[in-house]
Design brief:
heterodimer; A: mainly alpha; about 75% helix; globular; B: about 400 residues; two-stranded antiparallel ribbon; 2 strands
Chain lengths: ~325, ~400
């Protein structure tokens, strides 16, 4: 019970972090049809900027400044990169972001080196919030959840209740009509792209010190975010939300479970000797399969329901 | 309809074969021989990739999976031969790799090719991650961190060929490279190849004339898996070691870069990319640690300015040269070359300053920083001016070419 509750809380905070990433990706995708391969790189930049800015100003100012800087870089990327390759089609746009991911990773190598940097949880938040049975629950995880939830509610209200959100939503479905009404749709695109990148940056600020800030972090989280977006259905925010929580839970739970098929067979009184051919295959524990599970889930989803959880019908 | 074995075509392939025979005699050093072998493998791999990207419009980020799996199965087969479990000539071992790649592409392709476009790209990436992650799980088959080591002389001496010396391995690779090139070129001429192009351009219309686009994609994927597997098997024979890196995302990304830099819209384009990238990788990596960054920047520049790759740059100029109008371009090309020089030098300077810790060429940090930044700013200004000039020259040239009927 204790294990279950603690892991559930952990998976919730991880899932919310995933959603912060996948929501930006989904927004950008449904608006411009561009899959931003460099999205996780912006997440990484968020973490590194927070570390660097935080070294001078402390965590709290970095929490605001780092996503802002990442957003500005995102805006530049859209204005001078993506917009230029737009006329060459979606493949060129996708490959542009792919190349950008390469370059960002190398620049991070260049500036901060290959080893992880010492980006730590702020002291003010480095305490135990409550004790669940015997497990101490860190306050920072709760803070992470709080920020994500506040962020999500703000995003939701912004998109559905304000004039800006109205224009964004209209540009999603009827760009030429919005343009005819006198709005600068390319500029709306630029701001959405910047916003999505800033969200990724914020996720980086929060996730960087919770997990680890190193050059490989973009690669590690990037493909998981793609799984989330495919699983939830391309372009659907609700789908991305549900998928984030599911994938977050699966990853967190599977890492924590140290059971194998062998243990399962033992339950029924079957035991397999160590020199049997099947032993090495059956002794793989669930935690060992953890890196594969999200992808397996994605493949299963694609076989059963190719458009994903909440995706549109067309390709 | 053109005959399959027209005189022109036979002469062309004979010339390609002849150049393969002559190449190691011209570049006969040990380093260049291993480089040529590497290029041959890269050419097969990148052409098989372009069957998907260029011909069927499938942007795959997981093509190394078929390369890698073909390589691993081949490695185990070669080891079985070495242990004397059975005998099989090493010369034909690429067929084993090819069939492995084909079977895996058949199974995995069933899942991936149901969607096209961006979803396909993401799904192929997911599959690649899945296979890469399982490679670390099943250590008996994939050999864990150390990989699988083989012995390419396992087949013994057949007709004087033992595959001990690198030159013999090169000719093995060259032979298979020629066969694969011919095979893949032949596929582009078949009805299936034509249908694949149609599926790339307009899948809906393909449906209307009674074909199933998903089936076409699946078939192309399977065939391309075969050639990727051949390349993988050759890599096993060449390096005598294969690690899980061979089927990882880096390897998959690398082939995307090669194909795109070369040019995906022409059959021969990716070959340029394979040769150039292999050269760049080994040449640059000996000079600077930042070679991956240069490589990435080069890729971005190609996408921004010539998304058809190098092949497209050449193709665009062919009518100009034919019309004897290249002279009018030459001066503005010289200007843009001179204009981009400070930009390139400045950027390289900044990157190297960062890598080498603050200063280059014995100058102080302040001098090296400020001089390279000045170079970049000056370069940017001049470049924009030169770019405008080239554009206007091209516009008038285009009119002229149209008038004379060259385009």
């Amino acid at each position: 019970m204790e294990f279950f509750l603690v892991t559930l809380l952990n998976s919730l905070s991880y899932g919310l972090l995933l959603f912060m990433l996948s929501s930006g990706l989904t927004l950008i995708f449904s608006m411009m049809g561009v899959l931003n391969f460099a999205h996780a790189s912006f997440y990484m930049l968020g973490a590194y900027f927070a570390y660097q800015i935080g070294a001078y100003t402390g965590f709290w100012i970095a929490l605001f400044l780092a996503p802002l800087v990442v957003g500005v870089i995102g805006a530049f990327t859209e204005r001078f990169g993506l917009r230029a390759v737009h006329r060459f089609g979606h493949v060129a746009e996708l490959l542009f972001t792919f190349g950008l991911a390469y370059v960002i990773e190398e620049v991070v190598h260049l500036v901060w080196g290959r080893a992880p940097v010492n980006y730590r949880i702020p002291e003010r938040l480095d305490f135990t919030l409550f004790t669940l049975f015997t497990t101490q629950y860190p306050a920072y995880r709760a803070f992470m959840m709080l920020v994500s939830v506040v962020m999500l509610i703000t995003l939701y209200l912004l998109l559905t209740r304000t004039r800006v959100g109205l224009i964004v939503q209209a540009s999603l479905t009827h760009p030429s009509m919005v343009e005819a009404l006198g709005h600068n749709v390319p500029r709306v695109f630029m701001f959405v792209f910047a916003g999505g990148c800033a969200l990724a940056g914020l996720a980086g600020v929060l996730g960087g010190n919770m997990f680890i800030t190193e050059p490989g972090m973009a690669f590690a989280v990037g493909s998981i975010v793609f799984v989330v977006v495919v699983f939830g259905g391309m372009g659907s925010l609700v789908g991305a939300f549900i998928a984030s929580l599911i994938i977050g839970a699966i990853q967190t739970f599977s890492v924590a479970l140290n059971l194998s098929l062998l243990d399962f067979l033992n339950l029924f009184g079957l035991s397999i000797s160590e020199d049997s051919f099947w032993h090495s295959g059956l002794s793989i524990t669930i935690s060992q399969t953890a890196p594969v599970l999200p992808y397996l889930l994605m493949v299963l989803m694609l076989i059963v329901r190719p458009r994903g959880l909440m995706g549109n019908r067309e390709t | 309809m053109a005959r399959v074995f027209s005189k022109k075509r036979i002469i062309f392939w004979a010339l390609v074969a002849l150049s393969f025979v002559l190449l190691p005699m011209v570049f006969d050093g040990g380093f260049s021989l291993s480089m040529l072998s590497q290029m041959g493998i890269a050419i097969i791999f990148v052409l098989s990739y372009n069957m998907l990207l260029g011909q069927t419009g499938l942007l795959s980020f997981g093509h190394a999976v078929y390369f890698g799996l073909g390589a691993f199965v081949t490695a185990h087969i070669v080891n079985f031969i070495d242990q004397g479990a059975f005998w099989f000539p090493i010369t034909f071992v690429p067929i084993v790799g090819g069939i492995t790649g084909l079977l895996f592409a058949l199974v995995l392709g069933f899942v991936t090719t149901r969607r096209a476009g961006t979803p396909f790209a993401m799904i192929s990436l997911g599959i690649a991650e899945m296979v890469a992650a399982s490679a670390l799980m099943f250590t008996t088959f994939f050999g864990g961190e150390g990989g699988i080591v083989t012995n390419r002389t396992a087949g013994g001496v057949v007709a004087g060929i033992s595959y001990g010396p690198q030159i013999q391995v090169f000719y093995l690779i060259a032979g298979w490279c020629l066969i694969s090139m011919m095979g893949m070129y032949a596929i582009t001429r078949t009805p299936l190849g034509r249908l694949a192009n149609a599926v790339r351009d307009n899948p809906e219309r393909v449906k209307f004339i009674g074909y199933n686009p998903v089936r076409v994609r699946w078939l192309m994927m399977t065939l391309s898996g075969f050639f990727a597997g051949v390349a993988g098997a050759l890599a096993t024979v060449n390096y005598e070691i294969i690690t899980a890196e061979a089927l990882g995302l880096m390897a998959s990304g690398n082939v995307v870069l090669m194909a795109f830099i070369g040019g995906i819209n022409h059959f021969w384009g990716p070959i340029i990319g394979a040769v150039l990238v292999t050269l760049l990788q080994s040449a640059l990596s000996t000079y600077t640690q930042a070679w991956l960054l240069y490589f990435g920047l080069f890729f971005l520049i190609i996408i921004l300015y010539s998304p058809g790759g190098i092949a497209n740059i050449l193709a665009v100029h062919a009518p100009v040269i034919k019309a004897r109008l290249f002279k009018s371009l030459a001066s503005s090309y010289l200007i843009i070359f001179l204009a981009s020089a400070p930009l390139i030098v400045g950027t390289i300077a900044v990157i190297e300053i960062l890598y080498r810790g603050g200063a280059i060429l014995g100058m102080s940090a302040l001098v090296s920083w400020s001089s390279s930044l000045v170079l970049i700013v000056v370069g940017l200004v001049v470049f924009r001016f030169a770019q405008r000039r080239v554009k206007s020259v091209w516009a008038s040239l285009d009119l002229e070419l149209r008038k004379r009927g060259f385009v």
